Amino acid sequence: MYDTARRVTLVKQRVWENTRRRQRRGIYGLSAMCMLLFAALMQAAGTVVGPGQPEAWGVFGAMLLREDAGGYVLVGVVSFTAAAAFTALCFRLRNRENQKKGGADKPNRHEQEEKSQ
């Protein structure tokens, strides 16, 4: 039989492992979503950029100087906007999760690590 201190230590370890597993699952999900967004934007680039534009390997800056390069600019602006919105959404969800846990006044994880070292 374990004493109380050992049981508390084991419970804290299991909670930490479960939290870490949940965070990894979230990271994998976000990575998959980013890859899907990338693939969708690549398909959109193929449909938005009209035929007749030359393919210039290694001179992408020169392609943007052409008069009919609006498709590339559009895809760039849309991808930046989507990434910024996704980042803001993630920050809001994390803040909401911290507030639900009552951790608004808790120090950040890296601050806790600095104090422990």
Tag the structure with descriptive keywords.
117 residues, mainly alpha
Sum this structure up briefly.
76% of the residues lie in helices and 0% in strands. It is mainly α and 117 residues long. The chain has one domain.
Helix and strand run: HHHH
**Whole-number count of domains:** 1
Distance between the termini: 32 Å
Shape field:
elongated
User: How many whole angstroms does the radius of gyration measure?
Assistant: 23 Å
Number of helices: 4
Your description of this structure?
The protein is mainly α and 117 residues long. The protein has one domain (4-111). It has four helices and no strands. It is elongated, with a radius of gyration of 23 Å.
Secondary structure layout:
Blueprint: H1 4-48, H2 60-64, H3 70-100, H4 109-116
Helix pairs in contact: 1-3
